[in-house]
Write a structure and sequence with these properties.
Radius of gyration: 21 Å
Strand content: 5-15%
Strand order of the largest sheet: 1-2-4-3
Distance between the termini: 35 Å
Order of helices and strands: EHHHEEEHHHHHHHHH
Number of domains: 1
Number of strands: 4
Length: 316
């Protein structure tokens, strides 16, 4: 699904001083954007909410709602982003994030409505803005390293007893011994701490890098599937300062990357409708790198949009 180009169109032009300038969205326009956002997110969440109501687990998609802490109801909320006055009042579920304000519209008339309370935002999200801007800016300047072949998922089960498997209900495609041989016959180079921290004790020394939380700004890179999935995390952690459409775009990216991540994993997910990307073969490696390159390009666009929003948000 294509994202709405209106997501950042309402931002005022100019440099840092433009943070205090308010562009105006008339009531009809912003309520229509909110309605379209609700429809889009409802479609994205329908399968998950149906399964959840029936107590059915999903080994691929549940990750988006368990590892990531943004709840479906939060994803559904729409916000315009910084520097925007909403004629007539705040969006639904706005909480205490908005203040009453006035601004002149394109015809020069004074419009009253609601805008992001930048003081409240700086107090609660300002340091997050600083970190996210530093992290995304550093990653955006680096070349993408491709060819890790998703071995982080294999390293998470390397020499692991069967009763400790994270997805015990899903079989290993090559069995335990075959999975271990794949790890042992490849160079493991995982740069993302939040993947590396789930490696088994036996797998950690095999990684050519030893990423830490403290070194994340120095080690994350734009070819990494997990670093690109985390654009969704950074988008919602800056909510309500990020336009709702951009948060949804990042969610869709994370969902699509998660599918590749698990198709290339050691798990056999054919019973759930996912054909494997057999990274232990030359053909599988080529398919993985091609998909990884596409996600790196797509992530670069979203990262640039998030950085633009960060430049409009107040820091601590």
């Amino acid at each position: 699904m294509e994202h709405s180009g209106e997501a950042t169109a309402a931002l005022p032009e100019g440099g840092p001083d433009a943070r205090d300038a308010l562009g105006v969205l008339d009531a009809a326009t912003w309520r229509e954007r909110e309605r379209r956002h609700h429809e889009r997110v409802d479609a994205l969440l329908a399968g998950h909410l149906d399964r959840r109501s029936r107590g059915i687990a999903h080994p691929v998609e549940d990750f988006l709602f368990t590892y990531y802490s943004h709840r479906p109801a939060q994803l559904r909320r729409w916000h315009p982003g910084p520097g925007v006055l909403l004629e007539g009042g705040a969006p639904s579920g706005a909480g205490g994030w908005y203040r009453e304000a006035g601004a002149a519209d394109a015809r020069g008339r004074t419009v009253r409505g609601a805008a992001l309370d930048t003081e409240a935002f700086a107090a609660k999200r300002g340091r997050t803005v600083e970190f996210v801007r530093a992290l995304l800016g550093a990653v955006q300047q680096r070349p993408a390293h491709l060819g890790c072949f998703g071995l982080h998922e294999w390293a998470m089960v390397y020499r692991l007893p069967a009763d400790e498997m994270r997805h015990a209900q899903v079989p290993l495609r090559l069995g335990a011994e075959g999975t271990d041989r794949v790890v042992e016959s490849h160079r493991v180079r995982c740069s993302h701490f939040d993947a590396f921290r789930f490696f088994t004790d036996a797998a950690r020394p095999r990684n050519t890098l030893q990423p830490t939380r403290e070194s994340q700004v120095e080690t994350d890179q734009p070819g990494c599937l997990h670093a690109n999935m985390d654009l969704y995390k950074w988008a919602y952690k800056l909510s309500p300062g990020v336009p709702g459409e951009l948060v949804a775009d990042c969610f869709e990216l994370a969902r699509d990357i998660r599918e590749l991540d698990m198709r290339a994993s050691p798990y056999d997910l054919r019973g759930h409708g996912y054909e494997p990307v057999e990274i232990e073969t030359p053909q599988g490696k080529a398919a993985y790198v091609e998909a990884q390159r596409g996600f790196a390009e797509r992530s670069g666009d979203l990262r640039a949009r998030l950085l633009e929003v960060c430049d409009r948000l107040p820091a601590a």
